[in-house]
């Protein structure tokens, strides 16, 4: 140790070393490999390199640390404060603070390049910040008669010298921007560099608002989040209905539209691109930014949406063998697919897994990483097509199952989307068969005082997906429907809510209160539609469990909007998902969207998901011989033969129906052989 050397310890990394007195802290940090951000290259302009001194005695490291052990606040820092406002208490710019004596330095999370972004959702993976596009600020020398090289060559040289990034090229569309960007006296210029190989954007002076958008294109809705690429923060979020609905409610009807109309594919492509462009404008306005600040777009979608957005005709995905045009990630300029952001903004689409399992499922796998958790994890993303992932640390199996739109309220007589007035929670008294329910628009149960007043503005208009799951499960638990799913007309004597409709029976959940309302009724056909949907989902899950050689799962994650809203126990009563400790069945929120955000903010996540998908095993439900057998078994509630011990240790099963002499008589009549 040279006499004049001082000790420095950086927290939280714990890296430490000895440096000559007077060493700038940023240099010491870099020398030790401490993760500290900088855009301006140590010029005191960007404020990204902030640190604070931790005072006290650190016996283990033999360091007495004090703020006086750093150089005093300097003129550059004063200027920075004048321009940008005061620094947080105790903060310094590490590029303009030197070591005078031993010190312990804290590098706050926001000053780290590769910081972790903690997601709000419980049990979710954090996101590591390492975007594919990075900003660099440089000042380039004046051209001289002696040096005939162009401004671009001087820029590239400055980037090499200041930042060590070599071999850069410039996107042609940005060439004319260089002159305009170099009009400042200090010839300071910020560039965006994509994947450390191409300069994609150029700004005069210090530019600090790199933006990215993560988009989840669903067949019903499109959701987007505008993120700050330097902090990972979500600055604004917005959603819009997928305008393709006018060409078909579900995916297959849109494919049929394309088959029947030669211009159909183009119309669908234009519709979705317009919707996304509208979101880009809306989000930029919400965040008071410019659409040109958007440098990256990461996107997840099911295979049909994915293909249509990219301008690929989706008809091959409508029939076996459901051939994808590409299953690899797509990396393109956003403008090539008609998306209006910065002219060189990049679009990254996550890989598709199979003809029915798209980039949205890849997003779910990326966000949930079920193949990294302990034990056996089942992830289910319910939409009109359910995507199912079953994984442990050895294998990752994927399939999709055609559940249809019943869980979204379609094909249900009183069904509707989850909007104002829709019934979303239901309980049925097992003795009286009287229901109580909650509707979107009020927190009150329907049997509580004030409910009718609270709903008077919009009324009770129908029932949405989560309500359907609950009402059918409650009907089963109350004995209104049999395990085979038949509405028991024999109960009409006990309750006026059991109503005959032709040859079958229905359950009246809500009597219309006004002339504008209709009764909300659960018909025999509604129950049947739910049985078909849940049996398809369960059969898909069983195929994967067979393939994995397991009869149980340790953990179930329900992804998507539907998964966030349904009652886990009611879903299990219906037999939508297999038996599992209810405490280990949780919502994963919009996991596909979270995967898009991870891919947007962390380029390593792109490599990770491409590698993972390469090893995923696809099971094609459409041709699996056992699908039909599992489907038939899963039609019963909760299942014809699979036991549900965890569920029924917490939920009282329906009472076994007492067999009356009438029933015996009827059965005898039914079973008497024909003579
Ligand atoms: S590195 Fe930019 S202010 Fe210190």
How much of the sequence lies in strands comes to: 15-25%
Q: Count the strands?
A: 31
The DSSP helix count reads: 18
Order of neighbouring strands in the sheet with most strands: 16-15-14-17-19-18
**Ligands in the structure?**
FE2/S2 (inorganic) cluster
Largest sheet: 6 strands, mixed
Poorly predicted spans: 659-675
Rg over CA atoms, rounded to whole Å, is 31 Å
Terminal Cα span: 109 Å
Gross morphology: elongated
Helix content: 25-40%
CATH topology of the domain at 368-405 and 530-650: Nucleotidyltransferase, domain 5
The CATH architecture of the domain at 368-405 and 530-650 can be given as 2-Layer Sandwich
Structural class label: alpha/beta
**CATH C-level class of the domain at 368-405 and 530-650:** Alpha Beta
Mean pLDDT: 90
């Amino acid at each position: 140790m040279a006499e004049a050397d001082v000790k420095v310890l950086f927290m939280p990394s714990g890296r430490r070393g000895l440096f000559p007195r007077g060493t700038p802290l940023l240099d010491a940090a870099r020398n030790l490999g401490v993760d500290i951000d900088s855009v301006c290259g140590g010029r005191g302009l960007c404020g990204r390199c902030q640190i604070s001194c931790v005072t006290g005695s650190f016996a283990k490291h033999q360091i007495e640390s004090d703020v006086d052990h750093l150089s005093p606040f300097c003129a550059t820092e004063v200027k920075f404060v004048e321009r940008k406002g005061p620094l947080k208490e105790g903060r310094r710019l590490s590029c303009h603070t030197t070591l005078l004596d031993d010190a312990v330095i804290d590098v706050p999370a926001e000053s780290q390049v590769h910081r972790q972004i903690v997601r709000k959702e419980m049990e979710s993976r954090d996101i590591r910040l390492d975007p594919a596009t990075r900003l660099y600020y440089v000042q380039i020398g004046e051209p001289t008669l002696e040096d005939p090289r162009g401004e671009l060559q001087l820029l590239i040289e400055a980037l090499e010298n200041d930042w060590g990034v070599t071999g850069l090229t410039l996107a042609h569309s940005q060439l004319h921007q260089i002159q305009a960007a170099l009009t400042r006296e200090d010839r300071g210029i910020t560039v965006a560099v994509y994947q450390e190989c191409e300069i994609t954007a150029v700004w005069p002076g210090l530019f600090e608002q790199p933006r990215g958008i993560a988009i989840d294109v669903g067949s019903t809705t499109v959701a987007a989040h505008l993120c700050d690429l330097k902090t990972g923060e979500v600055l604004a979020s917005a959603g819009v209905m997928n305008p393709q609905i006018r060409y078909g409610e579900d995916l297959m009807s849109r494919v049929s539209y394309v088959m029947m109309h030669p211009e159909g594919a183009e119309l669908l492509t234009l519709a979705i691109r317009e919707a996304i462009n509208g979101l880009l404008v809306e989000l930029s306005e919400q965040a008071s930014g410019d659409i040109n600040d958007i440098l990256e777009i990461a996107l997840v979608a099911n295979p049909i949406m994915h293909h249509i957005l990219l301008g690929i005709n989706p008809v091959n995905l409508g029939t076996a063998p459901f051939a994808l045009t590409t299953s690899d990630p797509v990396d393109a300029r956003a403008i090539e697919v008609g998306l209006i952001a910065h002219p060189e903004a990049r679009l990254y689409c996550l890989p598709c897994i199979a003809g029915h399992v798209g980039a949205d499922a890849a997003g779910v796998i990326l966000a949930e990483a079920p193949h990294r958790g302990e034990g056996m994890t089942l992830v289910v993303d319910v939409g009109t097509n359910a995507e199912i992932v079953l994984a442990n640390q050895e294998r990752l199996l994927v399939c999709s199952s055609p559940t249809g739109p019943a869980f979204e309220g379609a094909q249900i007589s009183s069904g509707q989307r989850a909007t104002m007035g829709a019934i979303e929670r239901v309980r049925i008294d097992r003795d009286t068969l009287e229901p109580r329910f909650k509707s979107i628009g009020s927190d009150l149960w329907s049997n509580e005082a004030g409910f009718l007043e609270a709903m008077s503005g919009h009324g009770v208009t129908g029932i949405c997906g989560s309500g359907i799951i609950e009402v059918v499960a409650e009907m089963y638990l109350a004995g209104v429907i049999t395990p085979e799913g038949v509405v028991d007309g024999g109960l009409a004597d006990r309750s006026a809510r059991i109503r005959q409709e032709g040859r079958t029976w229905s359950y009246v959940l809500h009597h219309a209160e006004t002339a504008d309302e209709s009764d909300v009724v659960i018909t025999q056909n509604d129950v049947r539609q739910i049985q078909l949907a849940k049996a398809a989902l369960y059969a898909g899950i069983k195929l994967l469990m067979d393939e994995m050689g397991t009869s149980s799962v340790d953990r179930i994650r329900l992804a998507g909007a539907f998964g966030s809203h349904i009652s886990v126990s009611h879903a299990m009563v219906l037999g939508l998902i297999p038996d599992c400790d209810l405490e280990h069945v949780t919502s994963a929120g919009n996991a596909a969207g979270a995967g898009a955000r991870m891919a947007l903010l962390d380029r390593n996540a792109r490599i990770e998901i491409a590698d993972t998908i390469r090893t995923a095993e696809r099971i094609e439900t459409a041709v699996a011989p056992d699908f039909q057998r599992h489907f038939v078994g899963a039609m019963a509630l909760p299942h014809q033969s699979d036991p549900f011990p965890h569920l029924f240790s917490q939920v009282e099963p329906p009472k076994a129906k007492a067999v009356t002499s009438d029933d015996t008589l009827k059965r005898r009549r039914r079973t008497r052989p024909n003579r």
